Amino acid sequence: MKRWLAVLVLATLVCSMGASAAPIATVYDQLASSLAQVQNLQSRNPAQALTLLNDAQNRFRGSASDLASQLSDGILRNLEDAKVAIQRRSRTDLEARILVIRGILGKALYDAYFAAVTAKQIPQAQELLRRLIAASELPATLPEQATALANAANLNGLRLLFERVYAQNMLNAINRARSQASLQAAYLDTTRAYALYLVVQDSPRANGLSAQDFVGALAKLSANQAEDFRSQARALSQKIQAFLQQIGSRPSSQSAQAVTPPASGGVAAQSPTPHPQSKPQTTPPSPIPAVLAQPSAPAEDAYQRLLGDVRFLLSDPAQAERVTEQLTGAGIFSIDDWKRAVLEVKGQAITAQSQVQVGRFEQARQTLRQLQSQYRSQVEPIVAALNPALAERTNQLIGAMQQAVGLRTTDFSVLSNELEESRLALSRQSLGFGHNFQVRLQLLLLGLPRAVLFILAGLLAVIPLYLLVLTFGGRNIYWRFLGLAFFFLLLPAMLEGLSYIGSILADYGNLPFFGALANLSIQQSVTAQMFWALTLFLVIAFAGIGLRGIAIQFGLLQNARTPLSNTQPTGVSVGRVDPKMTTETLVEWDEEF
């Protein structure tokens, strides 16, 4: 029993270690993909690049809970700096921030990889190694060497191998930076070396290096002090060479791709310093200075062009400058950029609508929050200057939808029209009274008021159904048909109320599976609308059959069996009851003739 318990505990530990490594792989995949798109869009569409960066930042906050606080804070800080770089249209600054972010992610992948190797989780370690190679741009031959050492359980040799590769790449980057004629190219190479250092900063053999060495060199470049930078870079190069000597390898000017493991599977080291069992605490990544102190000339020209366009729209020069500063700060440098931003916001509204339609209400609310953030930063400045009431109403509508219970797809049609109203404000046009009335009505009823209204209607519909059973539950089939017509007439109201009960239970009762009842609403899906149309046809059919039969029974219609006649039957006097007819032969009103 004890043996099985020990096996169970060991399996639990292994699974827990595997679970801790999986999130960083997911975080890296999401963030690396987003950053690549941002880098491609910076020059062509800075507004969309900012939107993607905001989305990446929001996703990172939600998925990086397992990451060390020093690392996650460093990534968030550099993401904020990347936004500033996009706003200033500084490609060098943006690339530098992305390099640092990849370095921090590389540190997390590096630690997770060694944890997986220690736990002998080889497949998972290989996945982490693949991402680590991509994050740090390591040699393509490294995985084969690392796998051989990992299979031999030579953890010390494996760590020395990685440190040697990182140190050699750092040395190569610093040497390139020293020989660069362009300060911007030197800035990127120095940042690349700093990002590599972040991965191996915990090594006891790197105690001669510090983040301030790299940040100080970057500060010299940012201040255009080329000679001071070269002097500091020379000292930094010597420290990296000392790091290489501590590892046990002679520094080389060649790339680290030439590194090969010894035949025995270990790494020959000249008196290597043993790696301590307790890992030093990771130092938070230091912020790096911007490479440019002033916006570039193209950004200045774009600012002046946008200012001219805004002055054409606004008569107040001070207000025009204020709006232009707000727009350029959000990555909008032309009216065309602003129009594209409106279309992107409308696209997010469509995305939220799709999420609501499939029952992903929390994701829809998150999309609405992102939509409102982009609207306020990129669209609202011009709308607020041209039509303050419209800007306030749009913000109020988006905020109400974020908090509303029982969102329906029809709500997003109103929101999309409201965003179109914002676009039309640029040309002093409007969608008219009908749209304004719909927005006011939605603001009045959205959320609990509308839910209570339909729930009340659904509950009250039960009372007529009960009376229908009493009234039309007799033996006359035509009255039964009429009762069925009333039932199908009231059925959509009951289903609508049931759908809102499900929405309330999902939102306030923390029972998300009840959210599927929202699909019963005719405001939610085409299926529900078609079902409602079917019930209308059933109402028409059953009501027609029932009322026709009753009309025939009362002699109001003629059929083949009971023809109408204007003459009285023979032997029966007008106005007198046949004395032979008794109560036993009288036909009750709900019986079939």
Could you walk me through the main structural features you see in this protein, from its secondary elements to its overall organization?
- The structure is a single chain.
- With 593 residues, this protein is mainly α.
- It has helices at 2-41, 46-63, 69-87, 91-118, 122-136, 142-151, 155-179, 183-199, 211-222, 226-247, 297-313, 317-329, 335-357, 361-386, 388-403, 409-424, 433-445, 448-460, 462-472, 477-508, 526-553.
- The protein has three domains: 11-255, no CATH class; 297-446, no CATH class; 472-593, no CATH class.
- It contains 21 helices and no strands.
- Helix 1 runs parallel beside helix 5 and helix 6 packs antiparallel against helix 7 (155-179).
- The relative contact order is 0.06.
- Residues 1-22, 249-281, 292-297 and 567-587 have low confidence and may be disordered.
Shape: elongated
Count the domains. 3
Unreliable runs, pLDDT <50, ≥5 residues? 1-22, 249-281, 292-297, 567-587
Largest sheet: none
How many β-strand stretches? 0
- Helix and strand succession? HHHHHHHHHHHHHHHHHHHHH
Our estimate of the beta-strand percent is under 5%
Average predicted confidence as pLDDT: 78
* Helical content class: 55-70%
The secondary structure category is: mainly alpha
Radius of gyration: 37 Å
End-to-end Cα distance, whole Å, is 82 Å
Number of helices, where a helix is a run of at least 4 consecutive DSSP H or I residues: 21
